Structure prediction request, 366 residues.
Amino acid sequence: MRKALTFSFFVGVWIGICAGAAFAAPKDALFQSTDPLTIELSSPELSDLIRSAAKEPKQIPATLTYENITGSRVALPVEVAPRGRSRRRLGICRFPPLRVHFGDDTKNDALFGQQSAIKLVTHCSESYEAEQRVMKEYLAYRVYMLLTDASFQVRLAKIRYLNGDRQIAHRYGFFIEDVDHVAARLGLKELEARKLKNAEVKSWHNADNIALIALFQYMISNLDWSVTSNLGSLPCCHNVKLVAAKAERKSFRKTGEPEAVSEVMALPYDFDYSGLVDAPYAVVNGSLSRYPVTTRIYWGFCDHNQNSMAARAEVIAQRAAILAELNALTELSPRNKRKARSFLERSLDIMSDDKRFERILDRRCR
Prediction:
C-alpha cells in the first residue's frame, strides 16, 4: 500500500535529494515500539497549570519518569505547557492537551533523547469514556500509518499525573511525532505557508497524497481539516502540516510565492472531531453544519477523482490489516471495539462498491 501510494512522490524527492549528500533518516527511538509506556508526569504546579490552561497558559518545570526496558525508572527534567485551541480555549476539556519540552539534560536519554518538544494527547475529562475516545483517536493515527509513511507516528502511554505527591489522574494518552521528525524521515522539510488557493494545491501538492487524505478522512468521517486554509488568520493548514522536498520558508511566508517547491505533501492530524471518535463536543462547521459528525462526506478535489479511485483499491486491500490493528488495541473496551469495527467496516463496504463510490466522488467532490 505504502509503495503504491508514494512511489511517484519519492521519485520526485529522489531527484532533489541525490543531487546533494546521501540522506540518512534518523530512527526515532520513541516510536520504534508499539508497547505502551508507563509514565509519571509530576510537578507541584501541575494542578494550577490545568486550572488556568484556558485563560493563562504557561510553561512549568516538571519531571517525566518512565520505566526502561530493564524495568529501571528514569527521571527526566522537562517543561510542560498546555496546547490546542478549541479544547483548551473554549473550555471543552477539563484536562488540556499538553506539549512536553525536553532540554539539553535529556539529550543522552535512550528513549526521549531525540525529542525537543512533543505533543501529548490527553484525556479530555475524568470519565472512562473520555479515555476511550483517546484510544479511538490513537486508532485513527495507527490506521493512517498503515496506509502511508507520510504520517505522524504515535506511541501510547499510561500516565500518572502528579501534583507533587498527590495523584491528579491516571489515564491513557499518546505522544505524536514532531513534524520536523516526520519531514526528516521522508527526506523533506516543513513548509510554512499562508492560505492557498485550490489551483495552487492542485499544482503544488502530490495528487495521490491529497486523494489518500480525502479517502481516509471519509473512512473515519472527519471534516475538520483543510489543505488550503486554517481558522482565522492562522497560516495554512487546518489540522494538516505541509512538507516539501525543497522550500524557501522566509519568502513563502511573506509573499506566498516560494523560490522553490517540489511536490508538497500534507500530513493530517487531530482526528477527535471524526465520527469514529464521536466526541460529544464534536461538530461539523461551515456549510455542512446540519450534518452530525458520523455522516460520511467526501471532501476531496474533483481533479483528484481518478487518484482517489486508484487509492481506494489499495485502501480496501488493507481491510484485514486495519481490522487487525483495531483487534490488537486491548485498551479499547469490547463495546467501543464493536462500535469502531462496525463504523470502519461500513466505510470499507461503501468504498468496495465501485459504482456507488464513483457516484459519491462525482456528487461530493470540490
